[in-house]
Amino acid sequence: MACAAVILAAGLGTRMRSSLPKAMHPVAGRPMLRHLLAAAEPVFEKIVVVVGPDMPVLEQAASPHATVVQADRLGTGHAARMAAAQLEGYQGDVAVLYADNPLITEGTIRRLLARRAEAGLALLAMRPAEPGKYGRVVTNAAGEVERVVEWADASPAERGIALCNAGVVCAPGADLFRWLAALRNDNSKGEYYLTDIVELARAEGKRVLAEEAPEAELRGINSRVELADAEAEVQAAMRARALAGGATMTDPATVYFSWDTVIGQDVVIQPNVFFGPGVVVEDGVEIRAFSHLEGCIVRRNAQVGPFARLRPGADVGEQAHVGNFVELKATTLGRGAKANHLAYLGDATIGAGANIGAGSITCNYDGIRKHRTEIGEGAFIGSDTALVAPVRVGARALVAAGSVITQDVPDDAMAVARGMQTNKPGRGFKGKQG
Q1: For the chain: N or C, fewer Cβ within 10 A?
Q2: CA distance 70 to 80
Q3: Contact 313, 331 (CB under 8 A)
Q4: How far is CA 166 from CA 135, 150, 212, 260, 367, in A?
């Protein structure tokens, strides 16, 4: 059956104490809104995102989906109502989700839709370890939902109910928007509660059912503390997935992944390694301690670190070595090539088997533009060499230590580009003693 989604993302995140919209705060390197969209997109044929005024960054993150602005923040029911024009006349089911519930899975969303097929209205509920100020789901003897009561309006007995509302609902579009239009704000906060549609549905004789899901999926993220808790749960799940996939981590708690990190089999990850977005690590790689990787690929049986930094565009070839305090940016390091110590290699192509000496750098930026350096297969770059791009060092060429290379070096040649050494007899410390 056709279905659409309305995602509520207009929250300012006051408790976040941030100028960034709440839905843009990242979990595992990806904004909360994008997490939810990734789960929703395979399910819904149309998605409308409700944003607040002056939130261009959020509208951009919602693309290519339609956005509508909730100019006045008058509650969740009012926010959902803002999507009515975008879904006018829609014949299928419509679900309402929240951008600050970013960890809901596609499977849970599909179970909600299946539950809706059994009733006029379905909602998601959970049994959190600490119910706190979540709204409570009141059910009857048949297990059907009678109403949802917000914590602020709940009696002591109602606050003792363990089943809590996650806020997510699903109903036929025509019914949903009719109920939203009928909402009233005569409550302690003066807001239009989305949850009040439960009583409106029941008043029409509709059956209302709750689909339970784990707290880890449905918990709301409204503060930095809750954001950190969600991050910890996601990281624990990703570490477990990497271990189950054949990776070894000597201290898993100190390894941090991004949502899209790909780790192959027989990968060894030492302590205190951070993976930013866009990292692929192939089989047999060793990532040594205190390394930072983002936007890069590390190919089979390569070694990285310790204390290495791979920036976006880095491509470390099979059996290549990137050693301590070496930084790569937009650089391809060929099969078996080595940069073992204290080097910066930016905007470069380095051939198979080449060796980059300690302290060497590619001078890739002239203050206006970036330029590339090419180093051929089997070349040897002596220690403390500066390669001023654009420049090419040929295959099997040798560059003497301490050189500043500003011109191309042919294949099989040796380049020496440094000042002439002059020795002054008797001018050392001994000659100055008196």
Answers
A1: C
A2: 9
A3: yes
A4: 8, 11, 9, 26, 53
**pLDDT above 90 (res 1):** no
CB-hemisphere CA count at 13 Å for 163?
19
Gap between the Cα atoms of 274 and 317, Å rounded: 20
Residue 165, amino acid: N
Measured distance CA(274)–CA(258) in Å, rounded: 9
CA-CA distance, 236 to 238, in Å (whole number)? 6
Is it the case that residue 152 has pLDDT exceeding 90? no
Two tokens, residue 55: 């939130």
Report how far residue 387's alpha carbon sits from residue 30's, in angstroms, rounded to the nearest whole number: 37
Orientation angle between helical segments 106-116 and 32-40, nearest 10 degrees: 50
Q: Which two tokens stand for residue 237?
A: 């799940």
Q: Is the pLDDT of residue 13 over 80?
A: no
Residue 432 pLDDT: 55
* Nearest-angstrom CA–CA distance, 9 and 33: 8
For the chain, the straight-line distance linking the first and the last C-alpha, in angstroms and rounded, comes to 99
Q: Who contacts 291 (Cβ-Cβ below 8 Å, separation ≥6)?
A: 273, 274, 304, 305, 306, 307, 308, 309, 310
DSSP 299-319: -TT-EE-SS-EE-TT-EEPTT
Instruction: Report which of 22, 70, 62 is spatially closest to residue 40, judged by C-alpha positions.
Output: 62
Answer yes or no: are the C-beta atoms of 75 and 194 closer than 8 Å.
yes
> pLDDT by residue (tens digit) across 377-411?
999 999 999 999 999 999 999 999 999 999 999 99
Instruction: Report the C-alpha gap between 55 and 64 in whole angstroms.
Output: 16
Strand residues in 99-236 grouped as ranges (E) = 121-126, 136-139, 145-149, 164-172, 208-212
Dist CA 36 CA 104 (whole Å): 7
When pLDDT is cut at 50, 70 and 90, the band that residue 12 belongs to is confident
C-beta separation of 289 from 272 below 8 A: yes
Give burial (CB, 10 Å; 0-12/13-18/19+) of 266: middle
Q: Which two tokens stand for residue 386?
A: 């500066």
Residue 58 to residues 35, 228, 278, 322, Cα–Cα distance (Å): 13, 21, 21, 38
Phi, psi of 9 (to 5 degrees): -135, 20
Dihedral sign (CA 171, 173, 174, 180): positive
The catalytic residue positions are: 341
**The tokens of 389 are what?**
């791009």
